[in-house]
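debug: dumping io for the single-chain case to check the tokenizer round-trip. Nothing else runs in this session.
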Amino acid sequence: MSYGKFAGSHGPGYFVGADLNKSGLFRFGPFEIDIKNCELRHSGVLIDLPPQAFRILTVLVRRPNELVTREEIRKILWPGESAGDFDSRINFEIRKIRDTLRDDADRPRYV
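debug: decoded output
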């Protein structure tokens, strides 16, 4: 299974429509992610997203129109590790992202 991909409402496994710019600020719906300062905001209000989930979200916003595989996420989050239940760990972090963005896996708006 893959995660990622910006552009349009395509269903589970895709990230929907972010405005990308060179300053490291990405906007999607009422959200703004500031990669340089490791901040996520909802309607201008700073909201908490745990570090691993933030890193995954950062990977997704930096890769518009590309699929991001679980293996790519594993290599970014846990480089050098070859053993472990990475699928469960990735699922856990994706759930954190969806919860924070108030997104639903069955009717996704963002992820």
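debug: round-trip ok. The chain has one domain: 2-100.
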